[in-house]
């Protein structure tokens, strides 16, 4: 399993990763390597085209969008099945995240790194893995600060600063305005702010230490996976000896669960040697790879 | 997934495709493409096609050729496609 390529959560993917450099780490004849090479060939060829008009510039972007979409399409289950390749949902998510990172680089250049980092730090306070800023979908004229809010590369909504008193032109977000707008979008999309839970097990204990702040929704999700939380003991236990989903064995040190409030749940198991294994399930604890591919 | 929202630009682009004179296979490929691609890319393609209907013809051929090239992993075919793209953009 190519963990780095397929399963690494968004906040652990290196930003602005150079395609050529990452290609070196990919196995020979891998689809990812071939796709990166093709994108590179196209970028090199089209970089020499002068964008004298907006039309020309937009067409160039459309051409690159076709390539990006084709690569994404190539890893969708239906086509993978035709080709006999096994792929997973996370590959699609990761590609969308890569596209989002390109948007973020543009936004950072436009707003300045300091301001953009500041806004991202407000976003980090929500503690939702995969929640990112990107381009606004419905852009507004004369509003310098405007962003799209994305979760794992999926668009959730647009963020625009409030107009003071309804008269002055909105210019920049205040922290409270920004976080309030994010909260509203998350609420509208039914996304909880405690989406990720992590369990850590020490070598000497039998149970897994649990972050006690996990919400009720998380408890429900865990039950589907054959685990339960004893809040008094601050531990998580398997409901039966056959609990393999949580890797409840001597090897597992840490379990990170992302997306407990969404339909797709990613579980990352880390053993005491630091090796990681990722599993993707739907909200009924059915493994997505087995079911859909 | 629950948090995926169907976007308007995708629906708008699909409408253009459905009402076009493209073949059923081409329409099918566009639909799969639109369902998969990200929002900002759909918007870019939509605007390009709305700008000039001739662009739909070129982008459809481009889409088909790229899809075949990426499946067959043929670098030479890919280079040929890219060369055509460059010539087309420069002619605009």
Folded structure, characterized:
The complex is a heterodimer of chains A (293) and B (92). With 293 residues, chain A is an alpha+beta fold. Chain A has 10 helices and 10 strands. Chain A folds into 3 domains: 3-87, no CATH class; 105-188, no CATH class; 196-292, no CATH class. In chain A, 40% of the residues lie in helices and 18% in strands. In chain A, a hairpin with a 7-residue loop joins β4 (196-200) and β5 (208-210). The longest helix of chain A is centred in the middle third of the chain and has 23 residues, at 89-111. Chain A is globular and about 65 Å long. The two termini of chain A are 16 Å apart. Residues 1-21, 83-87, 202-207 and 209-214 of chain A have low confidence and may be disordered. Chain B has 92 residues and is mostly helical. Chain B has one domain. The radius of gyration of chain B is 14 Å and the shape is globular.
Shape call of chain B: globular
Sheet having the most strands of chain A: 7 strands, antiparallel
Number of domains of chain B: 1
- Measured by DSSP, the beta-strand proportion of chain A falls in 15-25%
Q: Main beta sheet of chain B, described?
A: none
Largest interface pair: A-B, 54 and 43 residues
Instruction: Name the poorly predicted regions of chain A.
Output: 1-21, 83-87, 202-207, 209-214
H/E series of chain B:
HHHHH
Please give a quick description of this structure.
With 293 residues, chain A is an alpha+beta fold. In chain A, 40% of the residues lie in helices and 18% in strands.
């Amino acid at each position: 399993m190519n963990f780095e390529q397929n399963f690494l959560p968004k906040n652990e993917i290196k930003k602005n990763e150079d395609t050529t450099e990452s290609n070196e780490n990919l196995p020979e004849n891998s689809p990812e390597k071939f796709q990166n090479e093709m994108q590179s060939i196209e970028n090199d060829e089209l970089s020499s085209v002068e964008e004298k008009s907006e039309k020309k510039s937009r067409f160039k972007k459309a051409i690159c969008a076709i390539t990006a979409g084709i690569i994404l399409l190539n890893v969708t289950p239906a086509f993978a099945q035709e080709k006999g390749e096994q792929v997973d949902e996370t590959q699609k998510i990761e590609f969308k995240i890569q596209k989002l990172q390109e948007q973020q680089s543009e936004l950072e250049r436009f707003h300045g790194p300091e301001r953009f980092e500041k806004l991202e730090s407000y976003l980090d306070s929500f503690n939702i893995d995969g929640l990112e800023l990107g381009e606004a979908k419905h852009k507004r004229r004369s509003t310098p600060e405007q962003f799209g809010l994305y979760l794992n590369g999926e668009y959730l909504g647009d963020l625009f600063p409030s107009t003071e008193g309804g008269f002055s032109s909105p210019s920049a977000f205040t922290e409270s305005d920004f976080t309030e707008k994010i909260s509203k979008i998350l609420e509208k999309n039914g996304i909880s702010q405690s989406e990720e839970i992590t369990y850590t097990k020490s070598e000497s204990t039998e149970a897994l230490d649990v972050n006690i702040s996990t919400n009720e929704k998380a408890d429900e999700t865990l039950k589907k996976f054959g685990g339960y939380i004893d809040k008094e003991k601050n531990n998580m236990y398997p409901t039966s000896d056959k609990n393999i989903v949580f890797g409840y064995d001597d090897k597992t040190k840490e379990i990170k669960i992302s997306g407990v409030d969404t339909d797709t749940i990613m579980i990352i198991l880390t053993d005491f040697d630091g090796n990681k294994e990722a599993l993707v399930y739907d909200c009924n604890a059915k493994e997505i790879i087995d079911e859909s591919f | 997934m629950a948090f995926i929202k169907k976007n308007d630009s995708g629906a708008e682009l699909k409408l253009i495709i459905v009402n076009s004179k493209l073949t059923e296979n081409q329409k099918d490929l566009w639909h799969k493409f639109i369902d998969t691609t990200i929002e900002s890319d759909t918007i870019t393609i939509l605007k390009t096609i709305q700008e000039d209907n001739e662009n739909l013809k070129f982008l459809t051929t481009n889409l088909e050729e790229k899809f075949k090239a990426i499946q067959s992993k043929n670098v030479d075919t890919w280079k040929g496609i890219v060369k055509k793209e460059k010539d087309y953009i420069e002619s605009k």
